[in-house]
Amino acid sequence: MPLDITLLLIAILLGAVLQVGVGVGFSIVAGPPMMVLLGTATAVPVLLMLNTLVSAIACEWVIWRIERKTITTAVVGCLIGVVIGLLVYPYLSEQIVLALTATLLLVGVLTTLMPLRSAIGTKGFAAISGLSGLATVWAATPGPLMVFGLIAIGRSARDVRRLVQPIALIAYGVAFLLHGMSDWAAFAQAPSLWAFVAATLVGSLIGRLVGPMLPQHLITHAIRLISVLACYALYRRAYLVG
Description:
Blueprint: H1 3-22, H2 26-38, H3 40-58, H4 62-66, H5 68-88, H6 94-113, H7 121-139, H8 143-152, H9 157-182, H10 184-188, H11 193-210, H12 216-241
Helix pairs in contact: 1-2, 1-3, 1-11, 2-3, 2-12, 3-9, 3-11, 5-7, 5-9, 6-7, 6-8, 6-12, 7-8, 8-9
């Protein structure tokens, strides 16, 4: 197996561990090397497919019943953002798409560092969910934005880790299907897809084991750190393709 594919498989495995254990991390860890190796046009639908798989494994299905209102609000906002993102996508260059996604993430990180006097409310959460949908379809990197939205409505880090999975499952799944309808060839030409799936499954199962043992403050700090790294990776990629 070529060295670059081996390194990508390791990144996919580690990303899946983070996504399931912390709530974010898959696209942030696996995305940059995949975009470099496969190109953005191919990497985005592959990331969406693998993220859908991760979220399906990570879901605690009882959460759908307990948090139906929150999940429904987030999903509707995400799907609106996905549709808008797909409509706008053909008119934007790869550099602009990457830079805009990185900027959205950076704004999200900064908002978590500012003291909030009160929760943002349903409308604010729906708006953040819409931005998350844009990031989903543009660069397969919505996780941090959705997490920041959940934090802003007053949810704990441990709740966020559980809540983000069903939301991401629907958002990623729909975005993947829509991407496939518009350009299936870009996805089909990706090499080593089955190996990518296997690494994702192993990482997801490890994440399910370690996630419940992580303290809340560690999850919050990990989300911020991973998001900052994602901003850097996206800005760097935008600079390199410019």
